[in-house]
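FIELD: query
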Amino acid sequence: MSQRTTVYISIMLVAAILGIMLAVQFRVVNRSPGGISANRAEELLTDLKQINREQENLKKEIADLNYKLNQVNKGKSEAIEALRGELNKVRMSAGLVTVTGPGVEVVLDNPKNETEPGMPPGLFIIRDEDLLKVVNELWGAGAEAISINGQRIIATSEIRLAAPFININTRRVVPPYQVLAVGNPDTLVSSLELPGGLVEYLRSLGIDITVEKHDDLTIPAYAER
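FIELD: result
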């Protein structure tokens, strides 16, 4: 065999081998995934929709929890305000705070001539029971706070005759007696000045009494001795 023939045979063998390699490579490329299959894409789309639904449910749950938390905080604030209001009422009833507001001023004084011909001395002098009647009438008419000559009247206050004086909260007070009451002025005055009411009764005893409305009164806190 000549050298030329040997060369041709070698070339043909190389070409054949190259052809076989190319064919195998073509099959491998065709078999390798060039993208996502339709079934796999559908599965991923389904998963994505499920994730979106779960995300929306979580958002709704978060919003619901935030609403409930706000309601709890709101209820807590309202409860605190209610307790604070009750505390203020108790403090006011106990006379622990100064009270300012509209109300009435009632001034009682002994008559200029304490005796009349044929009447025993001291008949027309203001007594502790007279002041008690005024105070009770004012409480009954809705007074929020009351004082007499600067002495705050509370549940335990004592108004007691210690002739010729009256002791209020163990302190001696003398006429004229200035009774201040914070509350609705019209209601308080109407209660005192009813026909046949307390003011008319006290005047019938000869006591000098005046009732005046005020837009702004200040009643001091109770002071322990």
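FIELD: remark
The longest helix spans residues 38-93.
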